[in-house]
Amino acid sequence: MPAHPVKVTITYCADCGYEPQTIALCSALLQAFQHELSSIELIPWYDGSFDVRVGKELVHSMYRDGGFPDNDTIIQAVRASAGE
């Protein structure tokens, strides 16, 4: 168990059809952490966004970093934030 459960927030462009990438990331997080996450929040948005926050930290932004994040990168960010 991590030192403290972590919330992951994914803001994705619903108009762009980014649901498959969002669901794939959610699935990877659930497989990696099962009970260690406090929640995964999905926020449908617009304007080409795909942002991932672990706690309050923005760990991936499509605008800043380009493209979609690698699932393993997000999993590592969750582990670091959870104190594993």
Number of domains: 1
CATH fold name, please?
Answer: Glutaredoxin
Would you state the CATH class? Alpha Beta
Total helical segments: 3
Q: What is the CA-atom radius of gyration, in angstroms? A: 12 Å
Number of strands: 4
Distance between the termini: 8 Å
If strands are numbered along the chain, what order do they take across the biggest sheet?
2-1-3-4
By CATH's scheme, which homologous superfamily applies? Answer: Glutaredoxin
- N-to-C SSE series? EHEEEHH
The helicity comes to 25-40%
Strand content: 25-35%
SS-based class: alpha+beta
Overall average pLDDT: 92
Which ranges are low-confidence, i.e. pLDDT below 50, for 5 or more consecutive residues?
none
CATH-scheme architecture: 3-Layer(aba) Sandwich
**Backbone shape:** globular
Described by strand count, sense and barrel closure, the largest sheet is:
4 strands, mixed
